């Protein structure tokens, strides 16, 4: 699986590509040190393959590397954060 990043002035997304299909996790940037993860989309062809989990972990790693905090509005990402107590450090 390959995860890439696209960023705009107001936000961006992480794209995961697997077997010719793409999944995404989008975010809005509230400030240079704060992002709001607002959506995770995984097509049916990639369900059950850990793609959403990989995107969530990638977002957490990027937040730690960048020194910023996350507000999890996306229900999927929010549920993943609740399952991983070790991710609490990135939450605002």
Observed structural traits:
five-stranded mixed β-sheet; 92 residues; 5 strands; Gcn5-rel_NAT; Acyl_CoA_acyltransferase; N-acetyltransferase domain-containing protein; globular; Aminopeptidase; GNAT_YJDJ; alpha+beta
What is the fold named in CATH at topology level? Answer: Aminopeptidase
- Measured between the Cα atoms of the first and last residue, the distance is 29 Å
* Weakly predicted, low-confidence segments: none
Number of domains: 1
Characterize the biggest β-sheet.
Answer: 5 strands, mixed
Number of strands: 5
Strand composition percent: 35-45%
Q: What is the CATH homology-level superfamily?
A: Gcn5-related N-acetyltransferase (GNAT)
Examine the secondary-structure arrangement and name the CATH architecture.
3-Layer(aba) Sandwich
Summarize the helices and strands and which ones pair or pack:
Blueprint: E1 2-7, E2 11-18, E3 21-31, E4 34-41, H1 51-66, E5 69-72, H2 75-83
Parallel strand pairs: 4-5
Antiparallel strand pairs: 1-2, 2-3, 3-4
Pfam family, one: Acetyltransf_CG
Protein name: N-acetyltransferase domain-containing protein
Domain N-acetyltransferase: 6-92
Write up this protein.
With 92 residues, the protein is an alpha+beta fold. The chain has one domain (2-90): 3-Layer(aba) Sandwich (Aminopeptidase), CATH 3.40.630. Helix content is 27%, strand content 40%. The protein has 2 helices and 5 strands; from the N terminus they run E-E-E-E-H-E-H. Strand 3 (21-31) and strand 4 form a beta hairpin. The chain is globular, with a radius of gyration of 12 Å. The N and C termini lie far apart (29 Å).
